[in-house]
Fold each of these.
Amino acid sequence: MTAIVRILARRVALLVPLMLGIVLFVFLVMRFSDVDPASAFFQGANPTPRQLHDFRQQNGLLDPL
């Protein structure tokens, strides 16, 4: 039983930095990307400025970091 706990503890200990790294990577890609998420969502649909604004507001894209 002790060996199983040790293995699980090691796996969890390795999982935490991995998840933090993935979150940091996704944050940095989204932050420094030149792509506007609202425009990418409406890809080819030609939305009105009001639709873009509403999408940004609903998804928290207008909120400060």
Amino acid sequence: GRVTSPKVAAFFSRGPKSLSVDVQK
């Protein structure tokens, strides 16, 4: 996988649902 930053890695760790929520913010 491609990890550009710790935040991105955290988002993927949380899962697609949390990722979508973070994106909306």
